Every structure is written in structure tokens, then in C-alpha cells.
Amino acid sequence: MDISEAKSQFPIFSKKINGKQLVYLDSSNSAQKPLSVIKSLDNFYKNEFSNIGRSIHTLSVNATNKFEETRMNVKNFINASSKDEIIFTKNATESINLVATTFGQQHIKQGDEILITELEHHSNYIPWHYLRVNKGAVINFAPINDDGDILINKFKELITPKTKVIALTHLSNVTGTIVPIKEIVEIAKKKNIPVLVDGCQSAPHIKIDVKDLDCDFYAISGHKVYGPTGVGVLYAKKKWLENLPPYIGGGGMISEVKKDKVTYAPPPEKYEAGTMPTAEVVAFNESIKFMQSIGIENIIKHENELTNYALENMKKINSVNIVGNPKNKAGVISFTIKGVHPHDISTIVDEEGVAIRAGHHCCQILHERLNLPATARASFGIYNTKEDIDIFCKAIENCRKVFELK
Amino acid sequence: MDLKQLYQDIILEHGKSPRNFGRCEKHTHEAKGYNPLCGDKVQIFLNLNKEKKVENLTFEGSGCAISMASTSIMTELVKGKSLEGAKKIVFNFLDMIKNTQEIKSEELDEDQKTIIMSLSGVKQYPMRVKCATLAWHTLNSAMLEKKEEVNTEAMD
């Protein structure tokens, strides 16, 4: 599919917001859904619904096959070695919690160090914070510069013999920084330290190849990749899934259960206890297929063009300050306007049908580092156009009018 | 919805030049308020004299135009009132935001009621109501001598 046709696949854009055409610039928060994903959910519940993996009847066998098809396609999408390295979770947050909890249980002792960065979303900080509380671990924050790039030399200095795990984002949801994961994994490998990558923001926007990155864990949220809510992915190298303890206990994750002994199923089932979000996992396959049909190279090209166009036009507006200027930037632009608080910006542009986010975007550490209580953020997706950016910039101009700024 | 209903001139003016801004060194009561959704923070300093009258009421903090204006207007209207009167004004304001069309208060004159009604525009913007109420809840907390920080997410 040509990317110019992408927008027409999203039913939400036929809706009016405040009487205006919707300009959705909040994809970093959650992406809209193409018709194929919505239809898949509808179809699965209408015609194909059954629980998976437990029953022998036809519906169950078919549902199981469809569920596993998604697993196979996720494996292809991120270039994992085996589909058994793909665990379905609720979202990337749960994926990171799974790793922090099970890895922490087995490998973290009092005084051990966990290295994260100042860019991290709360979801890649709080799960590790629990290990600080429960195990006496130490969390170190690799610093960034004002551009929003991680200072690699400082990062290296923070790796000590006590560093047990490194966890960092692939793409900042505030500055749009694309983090050089491959370079960081190479540094970590020399010291034999596993690396978890929070791929929540990167999955919809850049090419992901976990084999090439050589990271140990990679977390994705389905809803940000044009898929349904309630589905996340944890990629983990097989050795980890085989050797780490299980996470949530219950049905489906066991091998044998006795009064005095329980053995667990091999991965991925070992980490998928209870009834999974079956319809959502099945529909998630459609969102990946949708991205594949456009092609990640085309998506990157389109979003780069939009980002450059937006930056160019936003910089023309005197009072706008763009937050960060990273070396490699994706379609996430956080900004402030002198004299107008981000929440007021968001309310004012919403009147024009423009949906942006305002606040700390679950990155209080980063906002503290940048010395900003809050920012406004525009983030792009497959469906955005230059016309959207024009409407957005006009709406920003309106902030100055409402606030009677010169 | 009309943005001018929300951003009335009086709100923009108070937002730009908030009254009674800054810590007042001599105070008998203080409280902190926090809106975790947006990061807005406010600290209220209240000085009651021997007759239990609000001799001074100031604030520090950062936030959007609505929250700054609401706090500024509150300090102006409550200063000089008795403790009981101040409590009634806070109750009347929160009641207006949540329940009623007009502000009902025996403590305020018509001009003061007009000023306070400039904040009623937030009722059309449910996500912004807490911007307007944070300071008032915090003042209440100061008057009731509560120790813990006011958290808008723990409120109705």
C-alpha cells in the first residue's frame, strides 16, 4: 500500500472533533487503529471466538493457530531467532516488569547496580525501583546533554563490576532521540551485562532487528503499533526464558502439578499464565501486516519528512522553543511556548481539532533534568500529513492570540 | 465551546500577574498541593491573627493560567475574612464548580461573585477542573491543619 493511502484506512479520521477535522498528533501516547485491525476484532468475536490451547474442538484449534500466527509474524517483524522468544504480555510496561521481577529475583543482590538513563519513561524506571526497595539495589542514571543525547563516555564510566543489568529506551517519547542501542549493547557485551531495550516508541517508527542489535530483552506495546490495547510483547533471548523463574502463576504455564511439586511449561507458555487477550493478539497480527504492507522504509521516510517540515515551521514561530536537538530524531517533538503553559496550549489547539499531549509524559526525571515542569508534545504516525502540520502550526499561533502575546 | 469563556480577560490578567505571590515569612498555617496529572504544584501560606482573621494569605507554585489565576483570585477574596468565613468561601467555590450555576455565598459581595464566576468556564472542560480547584483544596487543608500534601487524584 502506498503511504498516501494509509490515512483512508483509519475510520476515526472521518469523525469531527469540536466540529473540526481531526489532526491526531498523539501517536506516541497511543496510535489510532486501521480498519483491518478493527474488523479482525469484530470477526474474531463474531465467528471465531474460543479460548486457545486447552481444547480439542475445532474453534479452539483454529483460534490457537491464529494466535500462534501472530507470534510467528512478530518474530519476523523484529527478526528474532525463534517464535519461542516471543512472549505476549499486557503491554510493554508488563514486559519490563516481567524482566525486572524475574531477573531481579535470580540475579540482583544488595548493592548490585542497575544502569538506566535520564531519558527513561516511568515504565522503565519504576519496575527497577522495586528492586531498589526490595533488594537494596542501586539505580544509576546515565546522563544526557541538553540536546537529549546520552553521553556515551559517562555511560561507560557508570558501568562497574557491580552493574548487573542495563535498561534503556530505543527512542525517547519526549525528545524523539533515537538511542544508539547497537553501540551500547557492544559496550555491555564486553562486560557480559544483559541489556533490556524499551522499544515502546521505536516499534512503530524505526526498523527493529533484535538479532542485529544483539540485545537480551526488547519490550513492545501493541497499541502504539496501530494494534489493539491489551497486547504487549516481550522478546527475550531463549537462554533467559529457559533459565529465569516464571512470573505470573496459573493455568497454561505448567507442565505437571502435584501436591508437593510443580513443573513449568517451556517458554513461551511458561510466561503466559491464564487466559490471554486472544482476540487482541489475533488482531495485532493485522496491525503488523498493515505496517509491513507499507514497508518500514517508507514509514521512516514519510515520518522524517513530516518531522523536518514541522520543525522548520515551528521554528518560524517566535515564541516556540523546541525541547532537545538529538543527533538522530524521530517524529516526536516536545515544545514550550513562552508565556503559555503546556496545558493551556493543549486546550487551545484542541479547539481546532488538534490532539497533542501536555505534561511530563511519564518522564519526570527527564523534565527535571531539562528544568521544565511540563512540555507540550506533537508526535506523528503513518496517517499524518503536511496539511496536519499546517493546521497544527496555525493552532499554535492561536495560543498567542488567546493569551494576547506579541 | 468558546475559548474566551475559559480564558476570560480577568483570568489571563491574574495568570500573568498573580497577586499575593511569594512566601510570607510570618504564617500560622501552611499546606502543599500537587496535581500529579500535570505536575502543577502550589504551596499556601496563611497567617491568622489572634481574632482568627486571615491577616495574610500568599502562595508559591507553578502551573497553567487557570491554576495560577484561580489561586491568585482566591488569595484576594479570602484575605481579611474570618477563619469561618474563609471556610465558607472555599465550600461555596467548590460547590459552584461541582454543582451549581451561580456562586452562593454570604461572604462575598456582587463584584467579588463576578470575579469568582470568571472561573466557572472550566466546567465545560472536565480535564481542567482540577487546575482550578487545587489551590482551594490546599487552602482548606491548611485551615484544617492537615499534615499530608493535597493530591488532586485522591479527591472527588
Characterization of this structure:
The complex is a heterodimer of chains A (406) and B (156). Chain A has 406 residues and is α/β, with parallel strands linked by helices. Chain A has two domains: 136 residues, Aspartate Aminotransferase, domain 1, CATH 3.90.1150; 255 residues, 3-Layer(aba) Sandwich (Aspartate Aminotransferase, domain 2), CATH 3.40.640. Chain A is built from 13 helices and 17 strands. In chain A, the strands form five sheets. Chain A has a seven-stranded mixed β-sheet with strand order 4-10-9-8-7-5-6, sandwiched between helices. In chain A, strands 13-14-17-16 form a four-stranded antiparallel β-sheet, with helices on one face. A two-stranded antiparallel ribbon of chain A has the order 1-2. The mean pLDDT of chain A is 96. Chain B has 156 residues and is an alpha+beta fold. Chain B is globular and about 45 Å long. Chain B has a single domain, classed as Alpha-Beta Complex (Sufe protein. Chain: A). At the A-B interface, α11 of A face α1 of B.
Outline of the structure:
The complex is a heterodimer of chains A (406) and B (156). With 406 residues, chain A is α/β, with parallel strands linked by helices.
Secondary-structure blueprint of this entry?
The complex is a heterodimer of chains A (406) and B (156).
Chain A: E1 16-17, E2 20-21, E3 23-24, H1 35-48, H2 58-78, E4 86-89, H3 92-107, E5 113-117, H4 126-135, E6 138-142, H5 152-157, E7 163-169, H6 181-190, E8 195-198, H7 210-213, E9 217-221, E10 232-236, H8 238-243, E11 254-257, E12 262-264, H9 278-294, H10 296-315, E13 320-322, E14 332-337, H11 342-350, E15 354-355, E16 357-359, H12 364-369, E17 375-379, H13 386-402
Parallel strand pairs in A: 3-15, 5-6, 5-7, 7-8, 8-9
Antiparallel strand pairs in A: 1-2, 4-10, 9-10, 11-12, 13-14, 14-17, 16-17
Helix pairs in contact in A: 1-9, 2-9, 3-4, 10-13, 11-13
Chain B: H1 3-6, H2 9-16, E1 29-35, E2 40-48, E3 54-62, H3 65-78, H4 83-98, H5 110-117, H6 129-143, E4 150-151
Parallel strand pairs in B: 1-4
Antiparallel strand pairs in B: 1-2, 2-3
